Amino acid sequence: MFLTKITAPGEAPSLEKLLALLPSPVRPPLVGRRAAPFSLPDNIICFCRRSASDLNRPQRGRALHHRFVLILALRTGVTVRVDDNDISLREGQGLLVFPFQFHDYMDAQRDALQWLFITFDMVNDPSIETLRYQPFDITPPMARAVTDLVAAYLKTGAATDDLTTLLLALLLMHIKRSRATSGRKRAVANAAQGGVAAGGAGLMTKVNELAENRSLPPSVKEMASALGISASHLRTRFRESCGVSIGRHVRRLRLEKARGLLRLSSRRVSEIAEMCGFLSIYTFSRAFHAAYGVPPLEYRKGAHIQKGER
Fold first, then answer.
1. Strand partners, 106
2. I need a labelling partner for 40 at 20 to 30 A (CA). Which of 25, 192, 194, 213 fits?
């Protein structure tokens, strides 16, 4: 198994060797390294997929939600389609899917696999944007953090919950550091293989940006004008790209944004409805109930937990 191979003894420096690199001052300084402000992940869920045929369940199609999804391909490679970009994820690699991104899976090398999924909420962190659409190699420090994280997650109690949060934050920090050192090389390789270059944005990504930058979603005609194509061409290309109409997609984006705000903020339901482009709280409540099976207020009170939502 990948984690067994990558965490083999002798790959990390021993504590004794590390201590030899530390100074031995007569008077230790009182001012040291300061912690930079950073966001902590919250509401963490870990689960494992063991067969390629299970990857697209329960949606059996393109998933879209308001949480981060960290995918670690520990055994067997698969192509992950994120928005309208095909990303080849090899065994021993990982990928972070951002909130409000469509994603599904195809072209598995074989049905038997072992993929770890870590889903979580987190407030906006600009430094994590470098990971969008960018696969990364799972390094030994990442593998050790993953092992400790899963061990902590399987235990219960407030102390282990805090430890799980901190270990995931450490894992994300390792991933960002890895991307910072190899991002340019990876982007060139992805472009050569027909993948997504850093900063590249496909049609769905551009539509998402247009839809999210204003409280009232733009019309198809306005979006087409901004993209420099006709409205009919935009409708056709979008349906071919993700299998749904652009209008339905934008509506779902608004509902997913509302669902995230209900969980992560204390704003009034009426305020959330307005922020997400619904003309009235009644229209919003009907649409939310139809999409998720519970009214917005009940969802905020925890009805989604009883329904087993991830």
1. 79
2. 213
Identical fold between 42-192 and 203-306: no
Instruction: Name the E strands within 107-178.
Output: 112-121, 136-137
Task: At 309, list the tokens.
Answer: 């939502």
Question: Model's pTM, two decimal places?
Answer: 0.65
If one looks up domain 42-192 in CATH, what number appears?
Answer: 2.60.120.280
Mode of pairing for the β-strands spanning 93-97 and 103-106? unpaired
- CA 88 to chain CA centroid, Å, is 16
Residue ranges per domain, the chain? 42-192, 203-306
The pLDDT tens digits for 213-269 are 666 777 888 888 888 889 999 888 888 776 778 888 888 888 888 887 887 778 899
Helix axes of 246-264 and 203-212: crossing angle, nearest 10 degrees: 50
Q: Which CATH class is domain 203-306?
A: mainly alpha
Could you tell me which residues come within 8 angstroms of residue 153 by beta carbon, excluding any fewer than 6 positions away?
Answer: 44, 46, 160, 164
Distance CA(238)–CA(122), nearest Å, equals 29
Q: Which residues lie across from 95 on neighbouring strands?
A: 71
| Structural contact between residues 237 and 203, judged by C-beta atoms closer than 8 angstroms | yes
Place of tokens 């551009």: 206
Coil, strand, or helix at residue 211?
A: helix
Q: At what angle do helices 203-212 and 220-227 cross, to 10 degrees?
A: 120
Beta-bridged to residue 136, according to DSSP, are 94
Taking each helix axis from N to C end, the angle separating 158-192 and 140-153, rounded to the nearest 10 degrees, works out to 140
